[in-house]
Amino acid sequence: MIKLIATDLDGTLLNDKGEIDKKLKSLLNVLKSKNIKFVPTSGRLYSTLCRNFKDYGSDLIIVAINGAVVQYNNNGKVIYENPIDREICFESVKALIDLNMDFEIYITCKNMNYLLRENKELIHKFAISDADMSFIENYYEINEDIFKIGIFKTSGFTKEEVDRIKIATGNRFEYEVSGNVWLDITNKDVNKGNAIKILQNIFDIKKEETLVFGDYYNDISMFKRAYYSYAMGNAPHDVKAKARFVALDNNNNGVIKVIEKVAGED
After folding, report:
1. 8 Å CB contact between 245 and 223
2. Which residue, 163, 181, 184, 166, is CA-closest to 102?
3. Total structural domains within the chain
4. Which Pfam families match (predicted)?
5. Which pTM was predicted?
6. Residues 6, 227, 68: CA angle, nearest 5 degrees
7. How many angstroms separate the most distant Cα atoms in the chain?
8. Same domain, 75 and 206
9. Are residues 9 and 72 in the same domain?
10. For the segment 223-258, what is each residue's pLDDT rounded down to a tens digit?
């Protein structure tokens, strides 16, 4: 019996217009009646996810910033947080700047992305995903916990470029390519899979009782924590190869159709 369903958002639960199907809300009521937990699991900010799911109740658990924050919806109880040491963060940012590569760096806290300079494409990406952003003159102005060093590169990342970034930052972090143009740098062991493991341990849920959905490389760690691992039809072939099942693509309600079967609503 399924007891936990976790899903990525962009390219997975959301269609290409950034919309959540209206059927989800009623489906979650059915899941709740069956004591099945539904967990949005994303690289998005916690504040963004709270807005995405503002009408879905405060008992909803959210996994934000690729697993760096696990917290109940609407500023509820914190289950897990794993911030980056400030000095290590700033030292690493300096090393990234010194690489002189064609990318933009930003710092992510729980509810805000901080940028040193304007980049129209990056600002547009944040705007369409409803991500809060603020411009600062110096990263030392940040006076809250830091959870991610983000890198945005319009042409995407080659393996060689990621390797250069790892070497420059002492290979001391998790490095997750997300949606091709994003590279998320978080503390070691911060990933979606570890967040799912934490919830499984808290609620005594087995791998065989877990169902997850994802479409990109930063979702593979989730696949490892669930017997019912679904890659989306729009996922790259090598991501699909890591999942046990393949759902329809995100524009054809792949997630909703599988959940309907679990809920007995198909």
Report:
1. no
2. 181
3. 2
4. Hydrolase_3
5. 0.94
6. 40
7. 55
8. yes
9. yes
10. 999 999 999 999 999 999 999 999 999 999 999 999
